[in-house]
Amino acid sequence: MTNRKTGAVDLSGQGQDQAVTRKSGVALWRQIADQIRQAISAGTLGTDGKLPPELVLSERFGVNRHTLRSAIAALVQEGVLRAEQGRGTFVESRQKLSYPISARTRFSTGLRSQTRDRRSLLLAHAVEPATKRVADGLGLAEGAPVVRLETLSEADERPVSRATNWFDAERFPGYAEAYAETGSITLAFQRFGIGDYFRKSTLVSARHADAADLADLKLSAGAIVLVAIATNVDAEGVPIQYAETRFVADRVELSVSTDA
Amino acid sequence: MTNRKTGAVDLSGQGQDQAVTRKSGVALWRQIADQIRQAISAGTLGTDGKLPPELVLSERFGVNRHTLRSAIAALVQEGVLRAEQGRGTFVESRQKLSYPISARTRFSTGLRSQTRDRRSLLLAHAVEPATKRVADGLGLAEGAPVVRLETLSEADERPVSRATNWFDAERFPGYAEAYAETGSITLAFQRFGIGDYFRKSTLVSARHADAADLADLKLSAGAIVLVAIATNVDAEGVPIQYAETRFVADRVELSVSTDA
DNA sequence: TTCGTTTGTATAGAACAATAGACAAATACG
DNA sequence: CGTATTTGTCTATTGTTCTATACAAACGAA
Questions:
Q1: What is the count of residue pairs from A and B with beta carbons less than 8 Å apart?
Q2: For B177-208, what is each residue's pLDDT tens digit?
Q3: Angle at the Cα of B67 (from B65 to B70), degrees rounded to 5?
Q4: Helices (H) and strands (E) in chain A — how many of each?
């Protein structure tokens, strides 16, 4: 509410403790859970792998210990924290995955150093007429047949992204099968003679995860997803893939390098 | 909860009505408000400028009419909707602003066509020692003096972004004053002989708005911000600006063009 | 005017969120 | 061992959110 005015001079440094907002549609325990999760990945909490005691945290946030415990319970459920009676509460995983975005972006590459185990799952696929949005993205006529692929990516046994991919069904018949066998967009393209391809554009936005994404990404309600809408083109500049990927915002950041 | 397995075949098209999740820290009216806001900017609701009647919407979301009314009340408060007794509920503003990100990114340019009125406000400024993160971004030693600028950007009388900017205080003494007088990052740099500069990298993430941003950006709790952390360099490649910008996720999308 | 549609207001009860205080159980440490 | 620290469980109370039902007020059209 306190609106600062032009010409004000100082304010406390970044990264200080944030206040919680009462009676505003978001439960206190959820606000606190979000802040703790964020503080952990920002490195301002639990840097030694251990969280301060519940009593300390509850006083810092200005809430009852039970309320704080609800927040911790949610994070334990998510796998961010691990609580041990008599010992304390510990940080389970900390680092954000950084996905590079450039002309040569393939989401699967560049991550090998950041994670041990990385898997891609094909959830579903179908051939269907293109909506206007998809048709525009692929340079096809509205209603033209396209292959749709629903995929889920995991790193270290935990879901990180959920993607919907579209391909021209006439140019790439049986793409879904090729993907299912190779487990890779790049390898599947190779079966159709696409040796190299490029990221033409990426549109980044953010929103709350919808019900389907909540389930697939194993998130609790209110979680945020980073949405990247991308168009890939072949060597001639013809669009070959249109994709919408939803990343778990807590685990991922997108790195855009724009060296001219 | 219902986890689909590998090899499944079809599911309903994108953009259908989303379910609301009960007892999960986020009030139903807030979830619904978020979905309506999103559906409007996605063009799947109120395309004719008018929302369906409350009774229809409440049935579609599976909640009581009062709950839906709370959602609408929040959106009216935000300025997204306008309700008229006896006539209906109308959409007040609809389009998302698209911010280009490229080597030549200046957030103020490229928006002239999208909005009539655009303003930048200096909220606060200070000289202070650099944290490790800021020092790394600017290529300085930790603790070196830096100028910090807190700015707020508005388009069409409504806040769209909130930025924290850091500059080397030794190289740019009095940068804050230069900015205050010119009202522009680019013009302020010109006073220090920087004729041209480039976006070196942008890191994009998303999170819930914190209390300070909620106030400055006039959001209600639970709102999402897109966070862009950027490094700008001069013609020689030396970092001159490190900035963290929080965009209102509902009003903004970032457009990354990566033409190789 | 009369009627149907739509938003606005009121009231009461059920479900959930948050507070308060007390005590149990596991751990670490002297 | 005994004590302090810390997480886990229990009960009770209060306030907010959601539901259910009813009716009022404004608007548009027959």
A1: 216
A2: 999 888 888 889 999 999 888 888 888 988 88
A3: 110
A4: 7, 10
Give per-residue pLDDT as tens, B211-250.
788 778 877 666 789 999 999 999 898 999 999 999 988 7
Are B237 and B145 in contact by the 8 Å Cβ rule? The answer is no
Architecture of the domain delimited by A28-91: Orthogonal Bundle (1.10)
Helix, strand, coil share of chain B (percent; to 5): 25, 35, 40
Nucleotide with C1' nearest the B85 CA: C7
- Kindly state the helix (H) or strand (E) to which residue A133 belongs, with its residue range: helix A132-138
Sheet with B158-168, side-by-side order of all strands: A97-101, A252-257, B197-208, B224-234, B239-248, B158-168, B145-155, B118-129
Task: Give start-end residues of each CATH 3.40.1410.10 domain in chain A.
Answer: 97-256
**Cα Rg, chain B, nearest whole Å:** 22
In the structure encoding, which two tokens stand for residue B61, read together? 């979301």
Exposure on the CB side of residue B17, measured as CA atoms within 13 A: 11
Residue B14's Cβ-count burial label (10 Å; 0-12, 13-18, 19+) is middle
Using CA atoms in the order B168, B172, B178, B184, what is the torsion angle rounded to 10 degrees? Answer: -50
Homologous superfamily of B97-256 in CATH?
Chorismate lyase-like (3.40.1410.10)
Query: What ipTM was assigned to the predicted interfaces of this complex?
Result: 0.61
A85 touches strand C (CB under 7 A): yes
A222 in contact with nucleic chain D (CB within 7 A) = no
First and final C-alpha spacing in chain A: 42
CA atoms within 13 A on the CB side of B62: 7
Give the model's confidence band at A128: pLDDT under 50 very low, under 70 low, under 90 confident, else very high: very high
In contact, B124 and B147? CB cutoff 8 Å? no
Contact B256 A203 (CB under 8 A): yes
What is the radius of gyration, based on Cα positions, of chain A? Answer: 22
| Cβ within 8 Å of residue B87, ≥6 positions away | none
- Interchain contact A11–B (C-beta under 8 A): yes
Q: Are B246 and B224 in contact (CB under 8 A)?
A: no
Is B16 part of the contact surface with chain A (CB cutoff 8 Å)?
Answer: no
